[in-house]
Amino acid sequence: MSFLDLPQFEEMLKRVADRWLPEGDLNGFESEQLTNGRRLLKAKETFERVVDDLEEGFNILIEQGPKSASEKLRSLTEGEGIDDLFEEIMRDSLIFTAALDLTDEEMDELYKIALTNDLSSKLFCALLFLDYTDIRFWIGLGEAYEKLGDLEMAQAAFEFSLIVALDDPLPYLHFAKFLIRQNDPLAKIAIDEGIERTKLVDDQETLSRLTDLLELAGAV
Length: 220
What we know:
The chain folds into 2 domains: 3-165, no CATH class; 167-220, no CATH class. It is an all-alpha fold. Helix 3 crosses helix 8 (120-130) and helix 11 (170-181) runs parallel beside helix 13. It has 13 helices and no strands.
């Protein structure tokens, strides 16, 4: 049995979605300005696409990942006791990396594979299923969808990165760059919000990169 066959699978995705997109203002943006993610998550075709991408993404990670990580991932698609694992994750609010004992080093290796794969959107989808708190995966998914020309899904992924890392300025940098490429005036707001967060965490490198974007955003 695969985790995709479990009746709890859809319920768990919906529960995670509620955590991704709370109602109300999102990190300084007006909620009506950031609607893509919430609307897309409620769309049946989006859910079906996520399921398809998860399955293909996991298969690639199992095939190309380091042996130790591949064996742990294979337990999700071929192992017994998957329903018990899901129950544990939902009961204790765990993420799959913890439940499967995937190490930081193993996740770093899987991340590198996703960055260079032609089907990176599917791999990042699988990585986010394993750990939706890692902003690298949201940013990677956004960039992958943008390369595919799917700008709506790309923006939704970048929006999620803002929510997952409330005080981290890095997602704002990547979101602003995406908005500038789309000639969206919201880019200036994203830059301002990112700059405010660099002050909270004393991130001078990201502050410098955000400041450099101000002139580009002004031309939008």
